[in-house]
Amino acid sequence: MTGTTMIETTETMTTRDGVELVATVWRPAREGRFPVLLSRTPYGRGLEGPGYHLDVPRLVADGYAVVCQDVRGTGGSGGELRFIAGEAADGHDAVRWAATRPWSDGNVGMYGDSYLAITQLLAAQERPEGLRAIAPHVPPLGLYEAVYQPGGVANLNIILTVAVIVLAVGELDRRIARGTASPADKEAYLTAVTRPGALDELMERLPLTDQPLLADLVPFYAAWMSAPDPADPMWGGGVVRHAAIEVPALVSTGWYDYFRDASIEHFARLGGESRLIVGPWSHFSHERHICGRDYGDLASHEAVDWTGVHLDWFGHWLRGRPAGDRARVRIFVMGDDAWREEDSWPPRRAEPVRHHLRTDGTLAAEESRPGEEGRPGEEGWLGEFVADPGDPVPTVGGAVMVFDAYGPLDQRPLDGRGDVLRHQSAPLTGRVEVSGPVELVARISSTAPGADVTAKLVDVHPSGRAELLTDGIVRVTGLAPGEVREVRVPLGAISNAFLPGHRIRVDVAGSNFPRFARNPDKGTTTLHAPSYVVLPTIP
């Protein structure tokens, strides 16, 4: 019992292959059958914790039974964890089980963040009877895309941090419960990974597969790092089949979430009655502040009322209540720091405007005239940078799993580095809104056979603050000596109003570490004209 109005119980179900999965159930303390809100997690059952941002007692008070289930191989559930890849069949069975419990009225919705979000999509593609709607918040697109960027660049900061801090600790807790490990084992592990600088040292290890601390606790980490090719069979079980999903989805994410573009891609592929909400948030924070940047009252948890948004969504699809907010797309426009409704994403009225990188470090909305670029003997030369895996450009903010230094951080700490090319506009005389996916189109050559090209879109304030908006990377291989190749670097989606007096800036480099794994090839990369950033601009 958790109170006079809510009953808490622990219940077990058996999957089709005989594995027992354990769930905690919270339901109203009265007789009756209730619609069910189901979440499935590898991070531990509870009213709060990774993957949750809703007020469970409030959901129960509104007449829902709320179920949180440990996925197989985690918490109290049996079997072996098949990270993402095994969640479709188990999700189907969990929905059918929840729909047929004595306290269930047969109508099931699913909710939760991150891993809990992709379990919803994988279950929905199996079309279990009773599933009426889902609400995936910050879901990865699939297993491969959670681990890698285009070209096989590992999302090192994200995936290694999850493995070290979350999955390994969860496995130790599981072993302690089974009696195959002791609390002292866990204490020793935590001492090893939480001492100052320990995680940085793990990020710096090469090759990527060399993580002795994970070899026993998270053995599939090394397998991931050994398979950068998306066609490798090991990734097949973690692919969402969007065409098979029939239920509506409330998809939500944040502009600084590392699964932002994956979330938006899910929305685009689902169509129909699905909805999209994007706020000024990170993977973990849904508040108005991100590392010193205040997005105002409208971004606050109280103003958004995330639980209320879900009650409206599930009330309509599970209980037939009139829908409240029916906006197809709701975006928070940074800079203006205000919400806006759209009927599509990206907005149909957005116009792709090319801003060309110039030799003098400027960013211009028109292509340069012949002769404006280049230096003696090198026509079209825009600049060059050394990419050195021994001295990579350090990550400063962005969509990273760093609990005190993420999101819209000031990029001025990197100003002294000569391996970053910076191109910025003149101070703007009017407001310029960029809403949609941003892309850098760059022509490059390199002294090495392989090169990474990273890019950042930056809002430079009149004060000098260089606020990071979004970034991306592409790995180029098979470069011949003297070859100039066009590459496209997706920086991802953004909605930002560059205000009068601000400057639009693009930073180009060969690394962004440890957000992205380093390229082992050392070389000098040259940027050639025409190279430009495409900004979807609202007229």
Fold topology:
Blueprint: E1 6-14, E2 20-28, E3 34-41, H1 56-61, E4 65-70, H2 87-99, E5 104-113, H3 115-124, E6 131-137, H4 143-147, E7 148-149, E8 153-154, H5 156-178, H6 183-194, H7 198-204, H8 220-225, E9 250-256, H9 260-270, E10 275-282, E11 289-290, E12 293-294, H10 301-304, H11 306-319, E13 329-333, E14 338-342, E15 351-357, E16 363-364, E17 381-387, E18 420-424, E19 432-446, E20 451-460, E21 466-476, E22 485-498, E23 503-509, E24 523-538
Helix pairs in contact: 2-3, 5-6
Keywords: Hydrolase
Pfam family, one: Peptidase_S15
Region (Disordered): 358-378
Number of helices: 11
Beta-strand level of the residues, as a percent range? Answer: 25-35%
Q: Biggest β-sheet: count, sense, barrel?
A: 6 strands, mixed
Structural class: alpha+beta
Task: Summarize the structure in words.
It is a single chain. By secondary structure, the chain is of the alpha+beta class. Helix content is 21%, strand content 33%. The protein is built from eleven helices and 24 strands. It has helices at residues 56-61, 87-99, 115-124, 143-147, 156-178, 183-194, 198-204, 220-225, 260-270, 301-304, 306-319; strands at residues 6-14, 20-28, 34-41, 65-70, 104-113, 131-137, 148-149, 153-154, 250-256, 275-282, 289-290, 293-294, 329-333, 338-342, 351-357, 363-364, 381-387, 420-424, 432-446, 451-460, 466-476, 485-498, 503-509, 523-538. The strands form six sheets. It has a six-stranded mixed beta sheet with strand order 1-2-4-3-5-6, with helices on both faces. Strands 15, 16, 17, 19, 22 and 24 form a six-stranded antiparallel beta sheet that branches. The protein has a four-stranded mixed beta sheet with strand order 9-10-13-14. A hairpin with a 5-residue loop joins strand 20 (451-460) and strand 21. Helix 2 (87-99) packs across helix 3 (115-124) and helix 5 runs antiparallel to helix 6. The longest helix is centred in the N-terminal third of the chain and has 23 residues, at 156-178. It is globular, with a radius of gyration of 24 Å. The model has no long low-confidence stretch (mean pLDDT 93).
